[in-house]
Write a structure and sequence with these properties.
heterodimer; A: 434 residues; alpha/beta; 13 helices; 12% strand; elongated; B: 115 residues; mainly alpha; 82% helix
Chain lengths: 434, 115
């Protein structure tokens, strides 16, 4: 039986022993059901074998409980078992209580009384459960990682394609502009002076503006798209790191133990493997002086009455967001704030606002897409949305209007402009429409 | 706008936005300097990592508050940095980042001297 089991080349279950006679019965029972099983005698080859195969289930069945605990301790400290695995401690009947406490402290995942060996079926169940547990963890982590990797690769491709498209389009426009400079409607033949003048004027007044407009449109739309894709990629990377941390927690090596007190000494703290935080507006948010809050509290009314209009200011830049809020609260508006589109959507779903002022370029979810989502929320289709933007291009303004934005304010705007627009869209007599 | 007709710190802009509360204006200016310091560190690190799209986003972010407090030269350099970062022209980016740092220091000088 020992020879057969030792022939297993890719063991999933390993039993560490000193005396074969002590564990022969257990070996037979385990081998009946599990062929990917190998008993390993403790000697100079044990550690290389463990390093080579990294079996998901490790049974420690040395001559005494103390030996088993110390040897397992040693393997952990040498990082031989620094991978996801289930550990099972074999003990004699008289040591069952200690083994039980070892498991309670998380030093081992399970224990089994192998001398005398009464519960054969239970032994099989313990080993089988150990295999199932490690298999599920591996499958879960692998599935999630594969999904993330797949999405990450797709995003990479999209970003690359987007950049290539952008370069290609801009190059085409440059080529058109160069061609215009040397073009002649009569296949290179010189024009009369007045004809040349008409041709040049036509180029300057019609063609060049169109090309410039197209170029700006490309900058605005493709650059925005690339920025969004990159943002998604960064978030995906953070999720992948978090997933990796969680998988490490599942496979956290067992803590070292003192044979006298059985006090654990953790080797690796999963908290130390924290994901690198993304740079976002929250992480670089400056400390707003306390009197900003005081000013708002002094001026604004804590309770909303029927006459007070409720405004949501959505802007990732905290300084500008605070400035607008200050202006509005000074004029008896009740102001709520959000620093990105996602948080804005949460607030919009659970609150009633008379008007929303929203920046268009924000992390996580930009104003344009937030507006589209707001218009899908039941009961929020008519809430006025005023865009905050530094971009006055007509093509973009038209696109935003089609998404549901009612008006826009050019940053930074002055107080009168802000109040005028807000007053117009919070007037009870006005029904907002895109 | 170019740097010849843009001011280091145009106080009229902030007054037109929040009124003539000098104390409040000062606080926003100080907050802008704190935000600019953090953003500049981020921009520098992003430049070293070659992450030009992120540089564009960071510049766009800081430009909002730069315009709002009246740091017109800063806003100008930030706009230029936004445009240049997409072309991934390293030398030009570096030059603009240096100009931006000088500009923020000038804003700091103005804010401190006005106290």
């Amino acid at each position: 039986m020992l020879n057969n089991a030792q022939k297993c080349k890719t063991p999933k279950v390993v039993l560490l022993f000193d005396e074969y006679d002590d564990v022969s019965g257990a070996i037979t029972i385990i081998y009946e059901d599990i062929k990917s099983f190998r008993p390993l005698e403790r000697n100079y080859r044990t550690i290389p074998e463990l390093n080579k195969h990294q079996p998901p289930v490790v049974i420690v069945a040395l001559s005494s409980l103390v030996d088993s605990v110390e040897y397992y301790n040693d393997l952990v400290s040498k990082e031989v078992l620094n991978y996801p695995h289930q550990s099972i401690l074999f003990c004699k009947s008289k040591d069952a209580d200690i083994a039980f406490r070892c498991c309670l402290k998380g030093l081992f995942d399970n224990y089994f009384v192998y001398q005398p060996l009464y519960e054969k079926t239970r032994l099989k169940m313990i080993v089988h459960n150990g295999l199932q547990t490690t298999k599920k963890n591996d499958e879960y982590v692998e599935t999630i990682n594969q999904a993330y990797i797949g999405i990450d690769e797709e995003l990479d491709t999209l970003i690359e394609d987007g950049s290539q498209c952008r370069k290609s389009l801009l190059a085409s426009i440059d080529q058109c502009k160069s061609s215009l400079a040397t073009a002649s409607p009569y296949n290179g033949q010189p024009l009369a002076v007045d004809e040349q003048e008409i041709f040049d004027n036509f180029n300057k007044q019609r063609i060049e503006p169109l090309l410039n407009s197209l170029e700006e449109n490309i900058y605005a739309s493709i650059d925005g798209l690339l920025a969004q894709l990159q943002s998604q990629k960064d978030h995906l990377a953070a999720s992948l790191i978090e997933n990796h941390v969680n998988s490490q927690r599942i496979a956290q090596p067992k803590p070292l133990i003192n044979e006298d007190s059985i006090k654990p000494k953790p080797l690796i703290n999963a908290e130390s493997i924290k994901p690198k935080p993304l740079i976002n507006s929250e992480s670089i948010k400056p400390n707003i002086p306390s009197n900003f809050q005081a000013i708002n509290e002094q001026i604004s009314s804590p309770e909303r009455d029927k006459k007070t209009k409720h405004i949501l200011v959505v802007e990732d830049n905290s300084i500008y967001r605070e400035m607008i809020s200050t202006v509005l609260t000074q004029h008896d508006y009740f102001v709520d704030q959000a620093d990105d589109g996602l948080k804005a959507l949460e607030k919009i779903e659970s609150n009633v606002y008379d008007c929303i002022i929203m920046d268009l370029f924000m992390p996580n979810l930009d104003g344009f897409n937030t507006t589209k989502q707001v218009r899908k929320i039941h009961g929020k289709q008519d809430v006025p949305i005023v865009a905050l933007t530094g971009n006055k291009k007509k093509v973009l303004l038209k696109k935003w209007a089609e998404a549901g934005i009612n008006a826009y304010l050019v940053k930074p705007s002055n107080k009168d402009e802000i109040l005028s627009v807000i007053s117009k869209y919070t007037s009870n007599a006005l029904v907002a429409s895109p | 706008m170019n740097t010849t007709n843009s001011q280091i710190l145009n106080k009229d802009i902030l007054i037109s936005l929040i009124g003539d509360d000098a104390e409040l204006a000062k606080q926003f200016e100080i907050e802008f300097l704190s935000q600019a310091q953090t953003s500049l560190v981020n921009i520098k690190n992003l430049y070293l990592q070659g992450k030009y799209i992120d540089i564009k986003e960071e510049a766009h972010f800081l430009k909002t508050s730069a315009r709002a407090v009246g740091a017109e030269q800063c806003a100008h350099y930030l706009q230029c940095l936004e445009d240049v970062s997409l072309t991934q022209k390293k030398i030009e980016c570096k030059h603009l980042i240096k100009e931006l740092i000088v500009s923020v220091k000038q804003v700091h000088h103005e804010v401190v001297n006005a106290q």
